[in-house]
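S.,

Sequence below, as promised.
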Amino acid sequence: MSDTTAPQTPDLADLIVHLARLGQSTTSTRLTAAQWTALRYFARARRPSRTPSAFSCFHATTRGTASQTVKSLVAMGLLARESHGTDGRSTLLDVTEAGHAMLRMDPLEDLRRVLARLDPDQRAAMGAALRQSVGEMAQLREVPVFGSCVDCIHCDRGPQGVICRKSQNKLDAEEMASFCVEFRPVSLRQ
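The prediction came back faster than expected:
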C-alpha cells in the first residue's frame, strides 16, 4: 500500500457509512432505518429465507432485536406471519399489500437514483469493490454473507432450467434475484 492511499481508507469507510445513513434518512415516513431494512429484506428474500432468524443474520443483529423489528412491522400490518410448512417452530413472513405500498415510498430510492446516474464503469467497479468488501467483512465477523442465486455456488444452470443444488428446487427469474440465507459466493468455489 502506498503512502498516498493509506490515509484515504478511514475517510472511505466514513463516507460509506455516511452515504448509507443519508440514503436511509427521511422524515416523510413513520419507519425506522431498521424497519425499512427488514421490510426491504422480506420483499427481496426467497421464501425459505423469510424467517426472523434469517433476517437477524442479514441485518447482523441479535435474534431478539430482529424479532422486535419484525413484531412492530406485523403490528403495523406491513408483514404477515404464516406457519413454516416444514418446521412447526418457525414462521415465514410475507410483505402485505400495505407493506408493498410502503415500499413505494422507500427513502433508499433516492440513493438508487443517484447511483444510477454514475457512469456504468464506475457503477460496475463500485459494485465489485463493495461485494468484495462485504464478503471480507462477513468473513472477519464470522457471519454469513447474503447475495442472490445468480452469484451462488449452489446455482446450477442446466438443460432443465436453473436449480438450487442446496434445496433441490427449480428457480424462476424472481428467485434468481432474491436474497437467500443459503447463499455462498461463487468466489468460494474451489
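The mean pLDDT is 85.

Coffee later?
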